[in-house]
TrEMBL record, chain B:
InterPro entries in the record: ABC3_permease_C, MacB_PCD, Macrolide_Exporter_MacB
Domain annotation ABC3 transporter permease C-terminal: ranges: 314-426
Transmembrane regions listed in the UniProt entry: 21-44, 310-334, 355-380, 400-420
A Pfam family that the UniProt record links to this protein: FtsX
PANTHER family: ABC-TYPE MACROLIDE FAMILY EXPORT SYSTEM PERMEASE COMPONENT 2, MEMBRANE COMPONENT OF TRANSPORTER-RELATED
The protein's name: ABC transporter permease
Domain MacB-like periplasmic core: 20-219
Intracellular or extracellular location(s): Cell membrane
Biological source species: Alteromonas arenosi
Lineage, uppermost ranks: Bacteria, Pseudomonadati, Pseudomonadota, Gammaproteobacteria, Alteromonadales
The entry's keywords: Cell membrane, Membrane, Transmembrane, Transmembrane helix
Length: 407, 436
């Protein structure tokens, strides 16, 4: 195909005779590009957020709450016996009592500092109270130091303010406080301003309960069981055994002790869905918008191009009669569309960046990756070319004889 | 003439039905997206208690650490301590006032067929019911005297009354909550303010609580803390009392102040109270107390989610693209009709007639788009409910205002979209068109 640049001049002038129509398409393409690119940027950001692992064996983990309600309820005995009974069930890998469920939205946080004192700046971390079965149940790997031993585990009473002497922290937390994982083991950190805890181990990864928190990877394990009337158990099962074991564990616990109810039993996968639900919803809504918008813009191009072909039937016939090939007629419409699209996409690049700056400013979104702009421009150019293909082909099929007829 | 133009309009729509369909669908999609997103935003930012929202004030006291503010840049915590809540209640300086908190406990129904279950609890004072105009099905709230005497009385929600007493009038009967015998004094009718303004700390669109009981029951029964508990220093000493009397905040406080003068007087009272506490070694930060009325408080707590606002922007831009699309298509369509228009002009139709004829045609497309858009927005709201689940269930109800809004939006946007193409159609010069 020999593209003559001389063609572009008359084409542009022809376009200028119907400025408004062309301008409308250009505007439509520009705004479409603005919405689509900013939406995709949000979708990618949310998707990345949802892909983060919690550190647990999510597929095979569930939890439930046991609430004792009679005045003679013995929390300490109940917890001890419950755990023994759950761990004895075939198919259960391990089970613990736990004060908060990772990525569930509700939990405890404390601040750890390397020095004692009220005005020392600390690092925020989620607190998980576990016994020596914590690592196995939560599927955590030690990367330095050691696990808790059974006699390090103490009983925390309701409203007890002090802390145990030892602690295990996540790698991310160790790196934030000490810049070095190995240097962390054996160090002392201060919790609640002035209570010392010795770091005895560092684990690979465990997320905090709050998925929107900046310090999501900051977690610490505190060696204690809780003598609370209302408490949670987290149970890890063998592969594929979770759904079978859930009702068994629930019934076993309900039958074991009177004066308590078993409630809020749920899986970690359902918890993840719930915690990320609004992000998942946003992704789906924005994707729907992107598809609808692209379709409408494409159909708009088809409609307008069809009109302009119909309007120019005589001219096209004349052109063909004077020797223009079918290919050159088609090329004319494709090029015309390319020209309009280019104007729209230049405008759209400006608008995209502008809107993105506003969004970043108002809603603290991550700025748009610049790579999106060339990708968006090329994609929308292709969409425009595909949309105009039909009308252009119809134009090319106009018989030269049409020129001789009056409409 | 209107009937005739209507017929002409429909004839023209039918003639190019694929194109007309495209315009109708485009307008409908734009309207549907806008109306459903506007509905969510409208309900999120709606006034939950319009007749007295400017007389109800949320109290914030800056009891936080001398080393850092509770919230940047220098905002007081969004809840207050047990000590301050009970002190402010004892002072009783406002027309009406209530401290409030959330908790939970097990209810053991007398009926052996109904199993014990966990219920959410709202702890509050007698004024709560009068301040927030809660509707009662049976009985009423409790009295100040019952608050002071720490009587185990309870107001049930309709749902709990249905569950435990089968929906009968249960006033005067007893119910076992947290291993304690309570006497029912009232049963509330369905009450779900949107947003749930009186406590937004764990979500502004949550359901209201199952039962309401006197605030001091927290201390009497050692009920657990619901919602968020924030502390800047550890409790001094062990046990429940030490925790209650700590600097941890977990309580909301509302005051009803009917006039501006009352508000100023109450602010003076609060400042005096804090000065007095400073002498006891508390409140080490500079004086920084706040009174916010309902709408100011909801704004401060940013109850309208960012995502909803982003979607609002996207929806309006989407509608804009749909309209531009329609303008373009109408323009082409009307320009094709130039010979017909010229003929009508030549045989005597005035420019006004032509304008009238085409604006009717445009309005038809707009109305069709509006109706379809309304259906789409219902579908959109269902979709939002499906995607968001519980969080959105109180926010996806299409009311008459929104239906009206959808129609006005559809009509205005399609007429706006039709105005320019119609004007261009009127400008056709009859002679030039008729020559060929």
């Amino acid at each position: 195909m020999n593209l003559s640049y001389l063609e572009l001049g008359p084409m542009w002038r022809a376009l200028m005779r119907n400025k408004v129509g062309a301008l409308l398409i250009a505007i439509q393409i520009a705004v479409t590009m603005t919405i689509v690119l900013n939406s995709i940027s949000i979708v990618v950001e949310r998707d990345k957020m949802m892909q983060r692992a919690s550190g647990l064996d999510e597929q095979n983990t569930f939890y439930l709450t046991s609430t004792g309600y009679t005045s003679d309820f013995n929390a300490q005995n109940t917890v001890t016996e419950d755990l023994l009974a759950i761990r004895a069930i075939p198919g259960v890998v391990d089970a613990i009592q736990l004060n908060a469920i990772p990525i569930s939205g509700g939990g405890w946080s404390m601040s750890l500092a390397t020095e004692a004192g009220p005005d020392v700046e600390g690092t925020g971390t989620a607190v998980y109270m576990v016994d020596e079965h914590g690592l196995e149940t939560l599927d955590l790997d030690l990367i330095a130091g050691r696990n808790f031993t059974a006699n390090e585990i103490r009983w925390r009473q309701a409203a007890q303010p002090d802390w145990p002497e030892t602690v295990i922290i996540t790698e991310a937390l160790a790196l934030t406080i000490f810049d070095n994982v190995d240097a962390a083991v054996g160090q002392t950190v201060y919790i609640g301003n002035d209570e010392p805890m010795t770091i005895i181990g560092v684990i690979d990864q465990l997320q905090a309960p709050w998925v929107g928190w900046n310090n999501l990877e900051h977690s610490m394990l505190s060696p204690e069981n809780m003598a609370f009337n209302s408490t949670r158990y987290l149970i890890r099962t063998e592969d594929g055994e979770r759904d079978r074991l859930m009702p068994i564990v629930e019934e076993m616990l309900a039958a074991r002790t009177s004066g308590r109810i078993i409630r809020n039993m749920d899986t970690l996968t359902a918890t993840r869905d719930r915690s990320y639900r609004q992000h998942n919803a946003m992704i789906k809504i924005l994707l729907t918008v992107i598809v609808c918008l692209t379709l409408i813009t494409a159909l708009g191009i088809v409609g307008l191009a069809s009109f302009s072909v119909q309007k120019r039937i005589k001219q096209i016939g004349t052109k063909r009669a004077l020797g223009a090939s079918q290919a050159s007629v088609m090329r004319y419409f494709m090029l015309e569309n390319g020209m309009i699209s280019t104007v729209g996409l230049v405008l759209g690049t400006g608008l995209t960046i502008g809107l993105n700056m506003l969004l970043v400013n108002w809603f603290n979104l991550t700025p748009l990756d610049w790579m999106y702009i060339p990708i968006g421009v090329i994609s929308l150019l292709i969409v425009g070319q595909i949309a105009v293909l039909g009308p252009a082909r119809r134009a090319a099929n106009i018989a030269p004889a049409t020129a001789t007829r009056t409409l | 003439m209107f009937g005739y133009y209507l017929r002409l309009g429909f004839a023209s729509i039918k003639k190019n039905y694929i194109l007309s369909l495209l315009m109708v669908v485009a307008i409908a999609l734009g309207i549907g997206a806008s109306v459903s997103v506007v509905t969510v935003n409208y309900l999120m930012s709606s006034n939950p208690i319009p007749h007295k929202s400017d007389q109800l004030y949320y109290v914030q006291l800056d009891s936080w650490s001398p080393h850092e503010p509770a919230r940047e840049p220098n905002d007081p915590p969004d809840q207050i301590t047990w000590r301050d809540a009970t002190n402010l209640m004892a002072a009783g300086a406002a027309f009406r006032q209530t401290a409030s908190a959330s908790s939970g406990a097990v209810i053991e129904p007398n009926d052996a067929d109904v199993r014990p279950f966990m219920a959410s609890i709202r702890l509050n004072f007698a004024d709560f019911f009068a301040m927030f105009d809660t509707p009662f099905l049976y009985g009423s709230g409790w009295t100040d005297a019952e608050d002071q005497a720490r009587r185990p009385v309870v107001v049930l929600s309709k749902e709990i009354n249905d569950r435990v007493f089968g929906g009968e009038n249960s006033v005067g009967r007893s119910i076992q909550i947290a291993a304690t015998e309570f006497q029912v004094v009232g049963v509330m009718d369905t009450w779900q303010p949107v947003p749930k303004f009186y406590d937004v700390t764990t979500g502004a669109f949550n359901d209201t609580e199952d039962v309401y009981m006197p605030f001091y029951m927290k201390q009497e029964l050692q009920l657990s803390n619901g919602g968020n508990t924030n502390c800047w220093k550890s409790p001094e000493g062990e046990g429940f009392e030490a925790f209650l009397n700590s600097e941890c905040v977990n309580y909301q406080f509302w005051a009803e102040l009917p006039s501006e003068a009352d508000k100023n007087a109450y602010m003076t009272f609060l400042n005096g109270y804090v000065e007095q506490q400073k002498e006891l070694g508390r409140f080490e930060r500079p004086l920084n107390n706040r009174l916010s009325n309902v709408m100011e408080w909801l704004e401060y707590e940013e109850v309208v989610a960012d995502d909803a606002q982003i979607m609002l922007w996207v929806a309006f831009m989407f509608l804009f693209v749909c309209l531009v699309n329609t303008v373009g298509l109408l323009l082409s369509k009307f320009s094709r009709k130039a010979p017909e228009i010229a003929l009508r002009r030549a045989i005597g139709a005035s420019k006004q007639d032509i304008f009238y004829q085409h604006i009717v045609e445009t309005a038809c497309i707009g109305l069709l788009g509006g109706v379809l858009g309304l259906v789409l927005s219902l579908a959109g709201l269902e979709g939002i409910k499906l995607l968001y689940g519980d969080f959105m269930q109180n926010l996806v109800k299409l009311d008459l205002t929104m239906v009206g809004f959808a129609f006005v939006l559809a009509l205005i946007s399609s007429i706006l979209a039709g105005l320019y193409p119609t004007w261009r159609a009127c400008a056709v010069a009859p002679a030039a068109q008729l020559k060929s």
